[in-house]
Amino acid sequence: LLELLNSSGIHCKVVAANRRDCLALSEHFPSTEVIYGESMDSELLKTEQLEKSDACILLTRSDKANLAVALYSKSKQLNNIIVLLNNLAFASLLHGLDINFTISSHYIMLEGVLRYIRGLANCNRGPGIKTLYKVYDNRVEALEFDVPENFSKIGVPLKDPQFHLKKDIIIASIVRNQEVITPAGKTSLKAHDRVIIVTANQKLSILEDILE
Fold this sequence. Notes:
Blueprint: H1 2-7, E1 13-16, H2 19-28, E2 33-36, H3 42-47, E3 56-58, H4 63-75, E4 81-85, H5 91-96, E5 101-104, H6 110-120, E6 130-135, E7 140-146, E8 169-176, E9 179-181, E10 194-199
Parallel strand pairs: 1-2, 3-4, 4-5
Antiparallel strand pairs: 6-7, 7-10, 8-9, 8-10
């Protein structure tokens, strides 16, 4: 995941509680800011100004830690929160608390998804919507849309209040001229882009449906 984000020019901060992991991450990802500490340390999160981030991705082995930081992030008005869960019992709780999305390690193999998204850059696909994956008892989908020329938010940065996504929708990736782009707050869509949407909303038929 870090390799993909870094290659897309996205500045990342990683908090790791193991000093050896910090050293290894710093060595392999020199452009990534690696911080030695506990993810649940509120003082650390304040110092690093979590509220100014475009997104928070929680991938520790502890569901409790992931949930705690997700709630803290939500209290700081952070909208893009991705949580790794090992216990599916927590999934409904997160949706009830209006956390944008959850990823279960029992149902999604991250490396396979990343390989698939990278591979899209080398594929020629026709117009329309394609279901890439159905997971979590078929309630979560990854969909591909072509961006039509009449899409209402072309050129609008994703962080702009005008670009207001519906609940439980994430723009996971953009494919533009065979280049895979990992979205950030300043990213905007262009006509003829291909967009990968991950969602728990089962009523999407056109790209415009992702918007409030």
